[in-house]
User: What shape does this take?
Amino acid sequence: MKKLLLVMIVCGVLGAAGAWWSYRQLEPPYRGFDAAEVFVEIPQGASVAAMADRLADAGVILHPLAFRIAARMSGSERMLKAGEYRFADPATPGDVVARLAKGDVYTRAVTFREGLTMWDTAEVFAAAGLGTVEEFLIEARDPSRILSIDPDARSLEGYLFPDTYQLPRSAGAKGMVDAMVAGFLRAFDADLRAAATARGISVREVVTIASLVEKETAHPPERPIVSAVYQNRLRINMGLQCDPTVIYALRLANRWNGNLTRENMRIDSPYNTYRYAGLPPGPIASPGRASLEASVRPSADTYLYFVSRNDGTHVFSSTFAEHSRAVQQWQVRYFRNRPK
Assistant: This one.
């Protein structure tokens, strides 16, 4: 009887000690790393024990057993998600478990503005630290993601939708390009597809026209009007004479130096819309939703010309005589009279 009592006392003491240890391990926030932040990659299929070891090695938790107990007590053992996690502040094992159960992985926000070419997009991707320009261009030159809607595509130019994307650092070029193409497919929705069908133009033609609109104006009210100018010209087989297509041709030939001269306006390329009538072979940049909308719903204007006012807006004309007067006012006299 005395032995049984002794055993019970010892068990009670050990139990109390264990509860005290668990409390001490689970409750106090801990930060065992000196850097401003630390990243921990939790691999797919990792066991709770393996997760605990990685977190302890990084100084996120004091002891692996504390994390395992917290996971067991919370009922989250089977809910912990893989991915890269960023830790900066002290945290309890319970806090860490909660973050892994929620899947609060570290992502980096990357914003791509409208009108970027795939080369420009690759530069933004690389600057965000997600990979290299070359890695991105390898993915961007693979049209397989959009062949179902554009069988003639030779790259993803025009289909890398401009937006802000939240991606983990591990996404790489493939993950980034996948997300951007998915963004395009969401933006070019059933409404726009129906409007394109009603006008009798293909997805490729829609995106190509939209890319010209995107490069020519950033003034929202003008987008449908610029679209109308180009589609009016196409209707009468008049050359589009779009400067951005010449720049694109020069970039393809590695001849673009930032200055559009009379000599390079004569470049022999199907993208040179001064030499060849009709649309260029494909998009020359990534249009946003508004330009896609303008492409399938141009204004009813009969304009064939436009010239810049040098303030982001344009003067539109229906006849060459009107256009010539606008050019004299807004290009010749404007620059001649501008203060030196």
About this structure: The longest strand covers residues 38-42. Residues 24-102 form a domain with the Dna Ligase; domain 1 fold (CATH 3.30.1490.480). Confidence is low (pLDDT under 50) at residues 4-21. The CA atoms of residues 100 and 326 lie 63 Å apart.
